[in-house]
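Example record

Each entry pairs one chain with its bound ligand, zinc ion.
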Amino acid sequence: MAKLNSEAKLIFRVAIAVPIFRLFDYLPPQTNPIAAIGARLEVQFGRQKTIGFLVEIVKHSEFPNDKLKQVLRVLDEQPLLSAPDLQLLHWASRYYHHPLGEVISSAFPVILRRNQSMVPTEKYYGLTELGAATDSLQLKRTPKQKAVLEMFQANHHPFSSSALCREYKNWRAPVQQLLAKALLTTQSASPSQPIDALIKQDALQCNPPQQAAINAVCEGLGQFSVFLLEGVTGSGKTEVYMQIIQAVLARGLQVLVLVPEITLTPQLEARFRQRFAVNIAISHSKLTDKQRCNAWLQIQQGSSAILLGTRSALFTPLKNPGLIILDEEHDASFKQQEGFRFSARDVAVVRGKFLAIPVLLGSATPSLESLHNANTKRYQWLPLPERAGQAIAPVLQLLDIRNKPMQEGLSNVLIEEIKKTVAKNEQVLLFLNRRGFAPTLICHACGWVARCLHCDANLVIHSHSKQLRCHHCGKEQPLPDHCPACKTGELTALGLGTERVEKVLMQLFGDKTIARLDRDSTQRKGSLESYLEQINQGSVDIILGTQMLAKGHHFPQVTLVALLDVDSGLFSIDFHATEKLAQLIVQVSGRAGRAEKQGKVIMQTRRPDHPLLTTLINEGYHCFAKTALAERQLAALPPFSYQALLQAQAADDAIPQNFLQTVLELAQHINSSETQILGPVPAPMARRAGLYRYQLLFQSSQRRSLHHLLDELMPKIEQLKQGKKLRWSLDVDPVDLY
Ligand code: ADP
Ligand code: ZN
Ligand code: ZN
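Structure tokens for the complex follow.
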């Protein structure tokens, strides 16, 4: 805390969420000249009032004091972020070369970022001593009150109003009556007593590898270390998480659990709620701002013990941090691809270091980066080599479809297998990573192809909506009925999308229920959840879908999985592509036979000898990863080198090119030749949404020299006048070179 005294004029240095790489100086407010580092401040910025974050208090400003505005109001008496978390945000701003104001702001829920009001506090309700001792049968004439009392007695922890809404719809009246009877009491802030780690359901008896993993992490509690749990699908990773979480809760500490996809939160939430009688907060982008703010405050104030969320929950401050878990750590959704481009996995690891707590990364198909870190002993490797319980690993098989008769992407052999499986009342899962009807519309007479006017891309045929749609900029147009070029030619759909496969499945299996799961069919809120429920109830026979199916959902009754076209993934120019394809194949395969019945996985290919496929099938993902890492090492690609990608785009072709040329010259001036600079070249997709895109790739064998270069370069780029005429961005450790 710093007090203003009239002799020494203190200056508040404030971070504001604008894309500018500097802090802004203000004079302390007159009314309340006390503030702690990290506090939110209301300030006048240009013509508007906005929220800033106090970063530093200094004695001098480079601007004359009479030019400085006064802070309007100090919003937080105590900063809402802890000192290690503020350090983390400073680190992230430096590492990703992103303005500090935007980075700090991203740690707050939208309401606290924008709304000028003070922190709202939720009301909590808990049992009084009398309430705890009262036999609920005494309330048998008022069943609602009885039910609410029993819920409190069964859970032993206070409930916030939002938690009550979730547990019991019409809670307000009975809670009021129980308050009147002094069986319940309210607390304005969070309860400060340690969290009771109450276990509702007994843990499973673990197999030895599970136990070894649990022991390793539990021995490491209270200090920083990183664990990589590599467990084949169905090996019981979630059980391992839960037993470790139990140990953390028993110490009165909190756990942050991150998953890549919103749709994965309900199933994990359900398992956690079955096991633990603690408050669990949920945070992801489909919740309202108010719900997310409440979740944030519950964790920040310590009234929830577990936070389950997606990437955006990463920075939520934990009152009593104990452990960070990142499930499906290989998933590209952990990388934020716009604005503040960060990897939630990498930042989670650094956060663990600042907070001095362990970080547990889990996956059936770990990223090559994490495996490399395990190989070099930076991470501790915890393998779970077998499926848990009674489940048996599926049989994988390559199906050579060269010269084989096909019906819309389905070979006759596969059709027979599907028939056999559905005849046994077992489920089939078909995977094709392309939505729409077909990726190309071509004229049979003149060869005209439907292209997007704004992107370097073909338009995709969507037959349900009778449209041509660009999957890159979203532009749509009606499906033409004759060729716009030669006016007479017949138009033909080339290639395969999920809608097309769905059509042939309905012809072949008209009496069976087919569910198509892709971004088009699950757009309506709740539709994916309802599909998943139907599948689990066994009312669906054939599931057809895109990569949505690879995301860790459980389909226990599926015994046949088929990947219709693995070849299209084999020939990408991005070096990450083989890793992603292998992960996709293994993840989709893992959906087969998760219960007692053994599953079968069929991959249709015209390249049955491709080394990626044969290694993966004969020797498994871990061996594939070893080979892939050796190749990366030979080619000096990440994780054996470090990259940053500078992208620039504008409506005029020359502008981004010239801009990057200027940047290149600036960089060559600074560079000590340890960092290679490649480009400027057009991006692999050279035009998107009407903008021409160019890029410059920095690559170095030394992380330090890469960052040294960027440290000096970025302020210079910011000064460039050319930069005002275009959009540019820097992506450190890019995972998508498009
Ligand atoms: P993963 O997260 O690795 O896919 P899960 O934790 O979901 O695996 O476990 C798969 C199934 O195996 C679940 O139904 C789970 O209850 C069960 N399971 C996990 N561990 C054990 C165990 N030690 N004994 C018996 N069943 C187990
Ligand atoms: Zn034509
Ligand atoms: Zn387009």
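The first strand starts at residue 11 and ends at 16.
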